[in-house]
Structure formats: C-alpha cells, structure tokens
Amino acid sequence: MTLYIVLAAVAFAIVLAYLFLIAPRGGAKKRFSDFLGQIYAHRGDFDNIRVPENSLAAFRSAVKRGVGIELDLHLTADGEVIVFHDKTLTRMCGDPRTPEEMTAAEISAMPLLETGEKIPALRDVLALVDGKVPLIIELKGENTDTSLADAAMPILENYGGPYCVESFNPFLVSRYRKLAPHVMRGILTTKYKRDGERRGITAFLLQRMLLNFLVRPDFVAVRHLYGGYLPVRLCRMFGAATFAWTVRTVEEYKASKRYFDAFICENVSDMLR
Q1: Looking at the domain assignment, is residue 189 inside a domain?
Q2: Is 91 helix (H, G, I), strand (E, B) or coil?
Q3: How buried is 14 (Cβ within 10 angstroms: 0-12 exposed, 13-18 middle, 19+ buried)?
C-alpha cells in the first residue's frame, strides 16, 4: 500500500510539474478579445502569381477585404527588420542566401517572383496597414539569438495599431516578453514527427510546449489538424486563446471552429462568402 501511495504522489507531482510548464499567462480572451473570432490572411492576401506573399500588394488586398494579417519577420545583416518568410531567398527571389546574410539595400533590389513587388521593410508595412486591421507578427529564427526581437520591438511600439507576436522559437517570444510584457504573445507548435519535420529532444519539447514557462503565452497557435491535442486543450482550459494555422479550405475552416478562437487562412475570399 505504501508503494502505491508513493507512486501516486510521484505521478501527481509529475502532472503538476507538466501543468506548470505549459500553463499560459491566462485571461487572454478577456484582455485581448479584439484579436479573437478573426480571420487573418496568411502572409497577406496573395496568389503568388501577380500578388506575391508578404508583399505590400498582398497586405493592401487584405486590408481592403477587412481581414487581419499574419506576417513574418527577419533581420538583415545591417539590422533592418524586413517582412519575409523563408530561410533563404531561393523560392521567392532565386537567390540562395539568407536574409541575415544580406543588407537591406541588396534585398530591396530583388523582385518577388519576377513581379514588380519587393521584399518590404516592417516600417513600410505598418505605414500601409495603419491600424486598419489587427496583425499577427511571427518572429523567425531557430537558435538562441534574440536580436530580431530587440530590433522589432521599438518599431512595433511606435505603431498605433493592434498587433501580437508569436514564434516557434520560445527564446524569441521570451525576449519580447521581457521587452514589452503588455503585448499579447503566443507560441507556435505542431506535431513535428507527424508533419515530417524535425525530430529529437528539441521537437519533443516544442511539440508539448514544455518551454512555455519561458513565455507564459496568451495564445497557442497550432496546425489546424491538431486542435484536439491534449497540450492545446490544457492551455485552452487554463485561459489561453487558440489560433489555427494554416486553414486553406472552407471545410477546414468550419472544422476548426470547434477548437480555435482565431484562424490564419489562405484563400480568404472563400472564407468570407
């Protein structure tokens, strides 16, 4: 009997420790209600033919439709915060270098997908949006370098419109938390192994949000297929908002409503019908 009591106590302690690790800040739905129930255009309202993703044209179209915008940030070699998604410029510009290896001048000279659109600076995007729709700002980075957060925060703090920040990298969000604790912050995750992405201890920790204690997120942003995943449900139970990514069809949008409070979408015109 004593052994059973000890085992039960150990199991209870493990559960409590896990809940502490993933516990969000709480109360997000009340404090940041303006962000919820919204559709956000993933990288803007783009088609990657005439209107490239993460371009001023894509953001202009999203504003015209009246939907929120999700966009991605990198830091150039000379410290400019730019709006771009990929690790390298290969897919969008035909250049194998990373944004971090290039200067802002070099990047601004390169067209996106052979269109007239260029990779914009964050300042230019904020000037275009001008508070008309809410923004989800994803901080890109896969190591412990948090200089992107340091560079982006002053720019965003001078912006008068609603925005929140998120990242797959808890160190970036943790740094933003220290710089601007009042800003709504979130952690991105997915089932890495099932998605065919990274494996190992890092993926194990990130998938289960075991580094949430660094972030104390207001929301968790999860691939739309995994809204019923236990760590996501627990975060929701403790008061975190839940964002779905990336929803591409009306059917996916309808199915996501069961689990999520906001929706990062492509083909947003279909969702608005």
Answers
A1: yes
A2: helix
A3: exposed
The letter for the amino acid at 159 is: Y
Question: Does residue 140 fall inside a structural domain?
Answer: yes
Residue 236: inside a domain: yes
The string of pLDDT tens digits covering residues 90-147 is 999 999 999 999 999 999 999 999 999 999 999 999 999 999 999 999 999 989 999 9
Give the tens place of pLDDT for each residue, 161-215: 999 999 999 999 999 999 999 999 999 999 988 887 777 898 999 999 999 999 9
Q: What are the backbone dihedrals phi and psi of residue 13, each rounded to the nearest 5 degrees, phi first?
A: -65, -40
Question: Which string of DSSP letters, residue by residue, matches 168-212?
Answer: S-HHHHHHHHHH-TTS-EEEEE--TTTTT---SHHHHHHHTTTTG
Residue 47 — left, alpha, or beta (φ > 0 → left; ψ -120 to 50 → alpha)?
A: alpha
Structure tokens that stand for 104 in this block: 């802002």
Query: CA torsion 217→223→225→227, rounded to 10°?
Result: 10
| Token pair for 44 | 């803007």
Exposed, middle or buried, 12 (CB in 10 Å: 0-12/13-18/19+)?
Answer: exposed
The CATH number linked to 168 is 3.20.20.190
Tokens of 69: 């915008």
Residue 26 CB neighbours (<10 A):
15
Question: How far, in Å, CA of 60 to CA of 62, rounded?
Answer: 5
Q: By the 8 A CB rule, do 174 and 214 touch?
A: yes
- Domain of residue 262: give its range: 2-87+120-271
Number of domains in the chain: 1
Residue 95 lies in a domain: no
